[in-house]
Specification:
By secondary structure, this protein is of the alpha/beta class. The chain has 5 domains: about 120 residues, Archaeosine Trna-guanine Transglycosylase, Chain: A, domain 4, CATH 2.30.130; about 50 residues; about 180 residues, Rossmann fold; about 140 residues, Helicase, Ruva Protein, domain 3 (Orthogonal Bundle); about 180 residues, Ribosomal Protein S5, domain 2, CATH 3.30.230.10. About 40% of the residues lie in helices and about 15% in strands. It is elongated. The termini are far apart.
Length: about 900
């Protein structure tokens, strides 16, 4: 009786020589070659050959322990019969084995020169179960047979007899063994199938692996077909290109389209640096070795074209003198004194030192103040090319530095793209909205701009696509921003900040008179007419229809007024001279066509309505008796504005017309300009302490706490007793809570409002204030003085309290605004409180300071804390008010 027969009769553990490998799994009923590489495996094979040729084949869990007796093999192995053994020269033995049965290895032992395994045979179970379960297993077997045929067709490596064996196999284990042996699976996957004991589990695992292999082979076949198709297309194109070349050579046209020679000539004409010329020649040589239709050839050709298109030399020369540059800047923009002076300085120094590097300017100001258009005017003044790049929303560093040319569709960054567009090496380069840059996982564009905006580095700027140094030192970089707070400090430190403040009413009036109205009259066809807009009408629009620091909304409203006027002119029978010379057919002359829409239009005579219908109904041709627009006359006054633009949209920023105890008006700065910041404080019985509402930021909250601490520490000086604070709560509120508010300039306002609420003393009307306080009562300087004073002037708050440190900032305020203001400069909070709340000091026994009113324009102010007024300018007021009157009113003709 053989060992196999005895094992089938008994399930107790048996022992046979062990051959272990790490790259082979043999299934029952399958022939497979196995290499007995170690001395133990070779000895085990020799022992088996001397007996009944039976060995246990095990799969090692890990490599590197083959020569050791301490081996670790998988639990499930195969009982195999050695069919053939061949001794190799290196001492190993090549075995051809046939799988007989799966076994479970219980333990391994060392027997002198070989390893042996104690095992149990795993019987292949027969299919049992309910009729439904057996039917389901039969379906899985049918699926395996069908998929195996598909797998064989895809691989074309399965012999027909194997396919027939799978079709004939009825036992599930036999079918799984044949399929697993035929499939080119990895060792790990094969062992999973070998170790699956239940028949159902083995069938499902085999079906899943077979489906995965079919899907993978189908995908590989599809990809191979695409690659083959592309290769055939490329070969076909190459063959046709060679035929075309040969035909052109026979016709004598070989040199007509020599692209490489043309690119070479264009680059040499620009005198590039030696490094650029060398790189260009190298890339051209690579192109010549490639097939014309290859992808790499296209990439290199695009790279060479970029090298040729970029400007390398020479630089543009300034053709304008100082006076001409000033005239150009003044012609395009009103005000902006600092920016204009800086450009004129640059032109002057360039005439003395032509090698001067370009400045890097940052124009900071509210929207609509002309920062972007000033960049174009700077280019005109310097007689240079102008390019603009908007940085708003740029998140990817590659937008600045470009992509590596190895990427598909790679391009240089916006810097080099704009330089190619400019066509010169020293244009005026406007980087718009630099404060709107953002960063994410793709990089930080602001950091990429550090090299561009550094005069010490931008002479060797390297774009990722170009991979060559490009000189940007001659470029005049101009950046714009609404605020410097969002610009990273390293980037901000490289730029020269020039503030472009908001415009006053009178500056807006001058801009409208000199720029906006003539432009809109031209654009709306009334440039040759007698239409005029009076100053009082423009001021009406500025004060009650716009609320901005710039002039964008003002231009839109003026354009709307002029369009309404143009509509009325057409309805009244006026037309452009160029249209009057166009012949009109009979139908148009008779008024044929569709009448225009007249809903909401001004009432016009019937005859005019007929004429308008003819003008609008047939291609815009005017009636035959139309009058030239040059004869049209119209004066637009302030009384006409409500009819043209509707009801007033803005009155002023003041929320309170009557001041009660606890109310104070502060001044604030925003990116849109200055505004009034009202503060309300109330005191009541309770233990809630200090309540702060109004969507305040941390800085304003700290200012409120500082103000309260200062007042409590000096309560007796202000006539307050301990009862004013004990058992009482203070509620500080800044109206319009939907708007976030923060900043270090509300300290004096909070102090005054709290003291007014605690003492029950209201402020006098017409006061506004700004400044921060310290815990010791010092008044600290703040920013945005010009914008804040413009806001106070706009809201008829003519008496102001400002920090002494801000006295110098009064020079930036327009003269026509400063002359109306009574500014009190205080170094500490106590003099400010004496000015604002004099009644408190009278009750507390503290002498009120002898404040003198601001002198008239011709006189000198002797009060150290009061600002010297500006000289009077022309006014349409019929009378003069005292410059220092406490209840001063705004002069007539300057807004109501």
């Amino acid at each position: 009786m053989s060992i196999l027969e005895s094992l089938r009769m008994k399930h107790d553990a048996k022992e046979l020589p062990l051959v272990y490998v790490h790259e082979a799994v043999v299934f029952p009923h399958a022939l497979s070659p196995v290499l007995a590489a170690t001395k133990f495996c070779t000895a085990a094979a020799e022992v088996a050959l001397a007996a009944d040729r039976q060995v246990v084949l095990g799969l090692l869990r890990q490599t590197g322990v083959e020569q050791s007796t301490e081996i670790d093999i998988h639990e499930i192995g195969t009982l195999v019969h050695i069919v053939q053994a061949v001794k190799l020269s290196d001492g190993s033995t090549r075995l051809l084995v046939e799988g007989r049965q799966r076994v479970r290895v219980r333990r391994t032992v060392y027997r002198k020169e070989y390893m042996a395994a104690s095992f149990e045979v795993i019987d292949d179970e027969t299919l049992t179960g309910s009729e439904a379960e057996l039917k389901e297993l039969s379906v899985i077997q049918q699926l395996i047979r069908k998929d195996f045929v598909v797998y064989a067709e895809l691989t074309r490596k399965i012999p027909p007899e194997t396919i027939h064996a799978v079709k004939r196999a009825l036992q599930p284990h036999l079918m799984c063994n044949i399929v697993a042996t035929a499939m080119g699976l990895k060792v790990e996957r094969k062992y999973e199938l070998l170790a699956a004991i239940p028949a159902r589990e083995r069938l499902e695992a085999t079906a899943n692996l077979l489906a995965q292999e079919i899907e993978l082979l189908s995908l590989q076949k599809k990809i191979s077909q695409k690659v083959r198709s592309r290769l055939e297309k490329t070969q076909k194109e190459y063959f046709l290109q060679e035929q075309i070349k040969e035909i052109n050579r026979e016709l004598g046209r070989e040199g007509d389209d020599n692209e490489a020679a043309e690119l070479q000539q264009r680059l040499e004409a620009k005198s590039p640096p030696a490094e650029v010329q060398e790189r260009f020649n190298k890339e051209l040589a690579r192109i010549a070795k490639l097939q014309p239709m290859s992808p790499e050839s296209g990439v290199l050709r695009a790279y060479c074209e970029w090298l040729v298109d970029l400007p390398w030399s020479p630089r543009q020369l300034e053709r304008h003198g100082l006076n001409q540059a000033r005239a150009i800047l003044n012609e395009d923009h009103y005000g902006m004194k600092k920016a204009k002076e800086r450009i004129v300085e640059y032109i002057a120094v360039r005439q003395l030192n032509p090698a001067l590097k370009g400045p890097i300017l940052c124009l900071v100001g509210p929207p609509g103040t002309g920062k972007t258009s000033l960049g174009r005017s700077i280019a005109r003044a310097l007689a240079r090319d102008f390019v603009r790049v908007s940085l708003g929303g740029v998140r990817d560093e590659a937008e600045i530095r470009g992509h590596r040319k190895t990427y598909v569709g790679a391009l240089p960054g916006k810097i080099l793209q704009s330089m190619r567009k400019a066509g010169s090496t020293n244009p005026v380069f406007l980087l718009d909205e630099i404060d709107k840059l953002s960063s994410d996982f793709r990089g930080d564009p602001a950091s990429a701009l550090l090299e561009v905006l550094d005069p010490e580095q931008n002479s060797t700027f390297v774009d990722h696509y170009l991979e060559l140094a490009y000189d940007l030192s001659g470029v005049v970089f101009v950046t714009t921003a609404n605020s410097v707070h969002t610009i990273p400090y390293p980037l901000l430190d490289r730029m020269e900040i020039i503030e472009i403040p908001g415009y006053s009413e009178y500056e807006k009036l001058a801009i409208a008179r000199s720029f906006i109205i003539p432009k809109q009259l031209r654009e709306n066809g009334l440039g040759e007419s007698g239409v005029r807009i009076r100053d009082d009408a423009v001021l009406e629009i500025i004060r009650h229809y716009t609320m901005e620091s710039g002039v964008r909304s003002l231009e839109r409203e003026i354009a709307r007024v002029i369009r309404k006027t143009a509509e009325a002119a057409v309805e009244a029978g006026y037309a452009a001279a160029v249209l009057l010379s166009v012949p009109v057919d009979d139908e148009v002359a008779a008024g044929a066509g569709t009448p225009p829409l007249t809903v909401g239009a001004p009432t016009v005579p019937a005859a005019v309505a007929v004429e308008a219908g003819g003008a609008g109904g047939a291609g815009g041709a005017p009636p035959p008796d139309s009058k030239p627009i040059a004869s049209y006359r119209k004066i637009i006054a302030s009384t006409s504005i409500p009819r043209l633009l509707g009801k007033r949209r803005h009155q002023n920023d003041l929320l309170f017309t009557e001041l009660t105890p606890g109310l104070a008006c502060g001044l604030a700065w925003t990116e849109q300009g200055g505004t009034v910041l009202p503060v309300e404080v109330t005191s009541f019985v309770g233990d809630d302490g200090l309540i702060l509402t109004g969507n305040l930021g941390d800085v304003m909250k700290e200012s409120a706490r500082t103000a309260l601490s200062f007042l409590r520490s000096h309560a007796l000086d202000f006539g307050l007793t301990g009862k004013a604070f004990e058992g009482r709560s203070l509620h500080v509120h800044v109206p319009e809570g939907a708007i976030p508010k923060d900043g270090p300039s509300a300290g004096v306002t909070l102090t005054v409002a709290i003291l007014s609420a605690l003492s029950g003393t209201p402020l006098e009307a017409g006061w506004a204030m700004t400044g921060e306080i310290s815990l010791t009562g010092k008044l600290l300087a703040v920013g945005g003085i010009k914008e804040k004073l413009l806001a106070a002037h706009r809201n008829k708050l003519y008496r102001l309290v400002l920090p002494e440190s801000n006295r110098k900032d009064l020079d930036d305020v327009p003269a026509e605004v400063a002359r109306d203001l009574e500014c009190h400069f205080c170094a500490s909070i106590v003099p400010a409180l004496q000015v604002l709340l004099p009644g408190i000091f009278s009750r507390a026994g503290v002498a009120k300071p002898a404040l003198k009113p601001v002198a008239k324009p011709a006189a000198k102010s002797k009060k150290p804390g009061v600002a010297k007024p500006r000289p009077e300018v022309d006014s349409d007021s019929s009378g003069k008010r005292p410059a220092g009157s406490a209840d001063r009113k705004r002069p007539a003709g300057k807004g109501q």
